[in-house]
Amino acid sequence: MTDRIREFLRTHRNDGPCLVVDLEEVRENFRAFESALPDSRIFYAVKANPAPEILSALAAMGSCFDCASIPEIEAALAAGATPERISFGNTIKKERDVAAAFDLGVRLFAVDCLPEVEKISRAAPGARVFCRILCDGAGADWPLSRKFGCTPEHAPDVLEAAHRAGLVAAGISFHVGSQQRNTEAWDAAIASASAIFQIMAMRGIRLTLVNLGGGFPARYRGDEPAANLYGVAIRESILRHFGNRVPETIIEPGRGMVGSAGILKTEVVLISKKDPSEDTRWVFLDIGKFGGLAETMDEAIRYPIRSERDGAEAGPCVIAGPTCDSADVLYEKTPYLLPLSLEIGDMLLFEGTGAYTTTYSSIGFNGFAPLQAIVI
Fold first, then answer.
1. Number of structural domains in the chain
2. Helix, strand, coil shares of the chain as percentages rounded to 5?
């Protein structure tokens, strides 16, 4: 927790749950990525946290933006980004949205199949495209599985089709999984990208771009490698597989850019036991999966939780949200240790919640208001 957030929480009281984001921490994370990978352009993944204050701060620092929809593109433009600093990185797009992005000046698009190439060739003639390839996401807390990307073997055909349709076949992209703790996780995908570059060269098409995606972690448990260690591993991998013909590279940090900048404040609504003989307590909060903590699904992301009673004797707790839905349980398989003196009305702080919380918050499930966000 930053000193600025600590002071804000000391002097401000909110009735409901709220997320407080320290903008200076975001700026510091941006500078860390610049230092770690100085030859790569940074495309912030807007979906992680699209707060206008965050987008404006990053735009002022020279960031580019990875956008998944027309509203995200419009938000990046409103924050001060120019169209050439925007990528339409979603591989699943309506043709009319491709046309709308093209009309706004966007010229860089993601594809992973022939039908998507056909859409872009019609709606965004002459645009640059990169083909996303599958990546297993091993080592990531939040793997991205098979929804996005094609097999590396199919990528050359997709890119050749783009070239023949009048598009600029720019290169390859991949994503090694969100909250990726293994600094070497990029190596296999970079090797695949290099092999695809060689195949395309034999077909007379020169690729120039490798989109290294996201995956850079936020600080949760404290054992996450620093940005500079990822930079060293990635740079060594690129040199190993591409030699002196180093391609243009971009990165798409989202969680790693804003996760550590946020603290989520929540109130204990109820503490109970299912059986008086049990040691484990159930702690119910005024926020849950539907209020912004969706990444606790399968207990994939385990946020550090702090209380004003830390340091006292602790015991195991199941942590759940307030809604009338049995799925709204955050942590049960591996209970958290919380102070035995914890009481109804106490405040808990979820650290590292600057990413994927406000954007996952429901509009009003069970009548609960969306998560309030405050950027300082």
1. 2
2. 35, 25, 40
